[in-house]
Design goal:
The chain is mainly α. Helix content is 56%, strand content 3%. It has one domain: Serine Threonine Protein Phosphatase 5, Tetratricopeptide repeat. It has a four-stranded antiparallel beta sheet. The protein is elongated. InterPro entries: BRO1_dom, BRO1_sf, BROX.
Length: 414
């Protein structure tokens, strides 16, 4: 049913730390990079020469492009003269061109599906390279890379553009709407992988998949994509004079519903990923409590006022926790000799982060100056009022694999 080989290079026991992840609006936990494959030897006379050459050419194109794109994708920074995204789109198209031909190996009970060894470099697994003689492993790796490219594209679009004079432009509504569509597309790739590709692996082989492709990691990335889509919606609502407080609270509560826990990641990329999730979760809960408290504060009873103060205090504590997690994320060591640039230590605030950093301290001084909480932060959070229960409204795109390339009908030899 397919064999596996994993190799671990010298990594000091910590795997590979990302040397510099650039400016981050959307954390992409490392792209898995395919290694070259010789298609000619395993198949012998099982496939025609034309089909073998086509498979080889399509995959070689991906190997070259992915190797070039990965360093750029992990260190993005938008400037007024940077167009960005074109190489990502080219690689995405190359993957889409490869899939229909690859599926000829994986589907329809093809006996050749286990003849070829596919090898990929991992990012979130200390076993840095994983090789499997299973075509569904290749399909899963391709879909994972397509999802990571989508998240990278969303990150690039969400970064404020810096002009030559250092001025930061405001994110346009068009760009933010495009980002939401990209998040849903990424979630669609990941959700399809969980629901339809992982079941293709027998249990004994599934447990040997690299951590990058483990079900828990794929699920966490899917939830992250959906949650950040809601985050963009909340940022748009904050900037809109038409959005009500109730709408903003609902969006913030949707983001705060799911705390992604239990990620089986221990190396440098994994630790960065966990810190990013902690940062965004605390930020979401801070926003949810802020808007919940604001709505309660409109009530006329003493109980409403007291509950509003408790909610606002929780928002303040969570905002501080979010800031700490944000700072930890941006200064976490990659290598001991890696210098931190100023923009890594002090990331540009935008959207919900910018709003909370400005609004909560101002509201505290104006509304809560005479109601300083006597308890510590933990007690504040334990006694905070319950948030309304709103499930995520965004759903992953309904992705479907393409049809098997018709060239398989003509080129499989009996």
């Amino acid at each position: 049913m397919g064999c596996l080989a994993s190799t671990q290079k010298n990594s000091g026991g910590n795997g590979r730390w990302p040397r510099n992840v650039g400016e981050v609006a959307v954390f992409v936990p490392g792209m898995r990079i395919p290694k070259p494959v010789d298609f000619t030897q395993p198949f012998g006379d099982g496939l025609s020469r034309d089909l073998v050459e086509r498979l080889s050419a399509l995959r070689t194109r991906i190997v070259v492009m992915a190797g070039q794109e990965a360093p750029r994708a992990t260190k993005p920074r938008r400037t007024a003269t940077q167009h960005g995204g074109s190489t990502m789109a080219d690689l995405q198209q190359a993957l889409e061109d490869y899939l229909p031909v690859l599926l000829g190996l994986a589907e329809n009970g093809n006996q050749l599906k286990h003849e070829l060894q596919f090898s990929w470099l991992n990012q979130e697994d200390t076993a840095e390279e994983t090789t499997m003689s299973n075509s569904w492993y290749e399909v899963l790796s391709v879909l994972h890379l397509m999802a990571m490219l989508s998240l990278s594209q969303a990150n690039l679009l969400l970064l404020p553009i810096t002009s030559n004079d250092g001025h930061l432009s405001k994110l346009s509504e068009e760009r933010r709407r495009a980002c939401i569509d990209i998040f849903l597309k990424a979630a669609g790739y990941l959700n399809f992988s969980i629901q339809h590709v992982l079941p293709q692996f027998p249990p004994e082989l599934r447990k040997d998949l690299p951590l990058d492709l483990a079900e828990g990691v794929l699920q966490a990335l899917c939830l992250q994509a959906l949650g950040q889509g809601v985050d963009v919606q909340l940022g748009m609502a904050i900037d809109s004079v038409k959005a009500t407080m109730a709408v903003k609270r609902r969006l913030a509560c949707e983001m705060a519903q799911e705390n992604i826990e239990g990620l089986p990641l221990t190396n440098g990329w994994g630790e960065k990923h966990k810190l990013f999730i902690q940062w965004k979760y605390a930020e979401a809960k801070a926003a949810a409590y802020y808007y919940h408290g604001s709505i309660l504060d409109e009530g006329n009873t003493e109980t409403c006022k007291e509950t509003a103060i408790a909610a606002q205090q929780a928002a303040e504590v969570l905002c501080k926790e979010s800031n700490k997690a944000c700072e930890s994320f941006h200064i976490t060591l990659r290598f001991h000799d890696s210098p931190y640039s100023e923009w890594e230590r002090n990331p540009t605030l935008w959207g919900t982060s910018k709003f909370l950093s400005e609004k909560i301290p101002r509201d505290k001084s104006s509304k809560m100056q005479s109601n300083e909480d006597p308890y510590n932060n933990e007690m504040i959070l334990q006694t905070a009022p319950a948030l309304p229960d709103f499930a995520l409204s965004l759903k992953p795109d309904e992705y479907q694999l393409p049809l098997v390339d018709p060239s398989w009908n003509d080129h499989i030899q009996s």
